[in-house]
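Table S2 (continued). Query chain:
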Amino acid sequence: HHAVSTSTASFFKNYTTASMVHQSPESSVSSPDLFTPNMSSVPKADYKSAYRAPQKLFSFNKATSTSSMESLAHQAAEVETSFKPNYLPSQNDSSKDSFHFVGSTLGTFLIAEKNNTLYIIDQHAAHERILYNTIMQNAGEKQQLLVPYRITTDNEADDAYISHMQKTLGEWGFECSQKDGSWLFTTVPLRWKGTEADLKHDILDRRINPKDIINAVAASTACRRAVMDGTVLDDDSAADLARKALELPDPHCPHGRPVFTKITREQLFALVKRT
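Corresponding output:
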């Protein structure tokens, strides 16, 4: 073992000394750079991907012509516009429809901008009013009863009242005729779900105007069918609802609540003391 160790040590000593004596300066081995990655593990085909230079939006050199400079300026403007994160309306927007849907918040409200005014819209109240208007436009629609409702009056005053209201009742879907001391109702409004007793109570006991009955039915139907608080609408549906809400002739739900509140640009600036 001692002989083998001595021979091995002598071989490496002689080799190293000879290399140092005969090696030229150009071929001298420099110390490894600790910050240079080991490229031997990267296949030749992937060398370009091993070091990828940062991508430049524009290249520039002193010999660039005037037309090229104008082209670069145009490209720069396009990139700047594409990078804008938000919609920035013109303060002097005179277009007929400057509506811009901003988004939804708190699971209940829609935010929209129009004519330098910010609107906060109650999505349930807005949808309810839109549905109510649609129902009232078709208020004359009626459904035929297979078994007519029979209302028996208690006195001549009741008969006189129904006789006086007969035409109006028919216009709103309650068609009736008098027979054998009773009033037979053969049709009722399409969306009315009341019973025979309900009809007698509304017409004779409460003496409600037929239009008011339809209003109550339409309001109740619209409220049940309208989008509820907490319902998250997709952007297209929300934007469409917000736009229609701002176009309502009467921006109140059938129960009298406002559909939206608003704040102008000037009011908002005043609140944050901005001039």
